[in-house]
Write a structure and sequence with these properties.
Layout lengths: L6 H9 L2 H6 L1 E6 L3 E6 L14 H19 L4 E12 L7 E8 L5 E9 L5 E13 L10
Amino acid sequence: MPDDVSSEAWVLWANGQPAMGTLGLTCTSVEPDESAFSLNQGAFPVNPNGAVHGGVISAVADQVMAVVAARASEPGMIPVTSSLHIQFHTPAFLPVTVRGRLLPSGFRIKYVEVVVEDTAGARCATANGTMVGASASRRLPGTTE
């Protein structure tokens, strides 16, 4: 995570995460309590009706939750998903806007709401999740930091 607290540094960091490109997700802003993203065509094909697959929307929501929670976390903490609940309201046709918002939270526990909207501003899906701060020293096997 960036040492620089500027929105620009956080946008660069978010867009550098490996899942972003695969999902077709681009971070456009990162603020202390809210972040915005655009979702365009990713590697997974759309449904026969042209809408984004619900599993992709869920993965996007999880990625957005991670960015929002990371921005709100103390240095040395990495947010991991504890729970994710999603409701699908209408089919999501690309491109869509995705907004993540930090809800009132604690030190290690971060509650995040993610809203997916179509180009007309209609809500396609709402996700709520809980992120838990883990020590940054807990890395995947084979990593050096």
